[in-house]
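Training component of the fellowship. As part of building independent skills, the fellow (R.M.) carried out the full modelling exercise for a liganded target. The chosen ligand was 2'-deoxycytidine-5'-monophosphate. The inputs are recorded below so that the supervisory panel can assess the work.
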Amino acid sequence: MRTNGIIVAIDGPVGSGKSSTAKGVAQALGYLHLNTGAMYRAFALLVREEGGLGVAADDPRIHQLITAADISFAATGAVTLSGRDVSREIQDPEIALLASRFSAVPEVRARLVEKQRAMGAAGGVVLEGRDIGTVVFPDAELKIFLVADLHARAERRQRELSDMGTPMEVGEVERQIAERDRRDREREISPLLKADDAVELDTTTLTLDGQIGEVVRLARERIARG
Ligand code: DC
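Fellow's submitted model of the complex:
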């Protein structure tokens, strides 16, 4: 039962504008914002902290870690690992690559998807990720698929990294993004895929206000239709 409003699903590749769009849309609608990528990143951080960097996807330690992992969101929207705010630590590009690697493990996905469904089922929520419209909430009332040129995405990501004090050359950012995209698209389970009924939005030349405004317009239209 959607007691709190509709579900807005925003999917797309790295740097397509998911997080900033989802945040702005949630704010405009008075909805909750759930960044599911942050959950995969928090799990990757846990694996790194437990010294499991080299572990294979089918290593029993992955099973133990995901079963015991306490990944949640604080009221501020910050992702937490055993109650600790890890929102800054998970921005590390190494964590992003690890998140992409471990997100291909079926059991990791199953556990995190279960949490995402529990948090979003009542509606009034904007979820962003790779598989929200296809797997997590295939019945979402509004599905958006964001795309943008690889170079534009790399430039955005580079700006964010440099704002956080970790500058990187744009060519290297582009290489890492392309690697992550390939892995996210080619994995067997829940690959990055546009749902048949998703609205595709190319953000290459859109301003942030423009992309937020368009999604909010579509959401209000959907809410009005009941
Ligand atoms: O959105 P992001 O870049 O923070 O996500 C980090 C990685 O997590 C991404 O490369 C793939 C994975 N991910 C996923 O498999 N499914 C999601 N719903 C969200 C993220």
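The panel noted the following from the submitted structure. The radius of gyration is 17 Å. Residues 66 and 185 are 23 Å apart (CA to CA).
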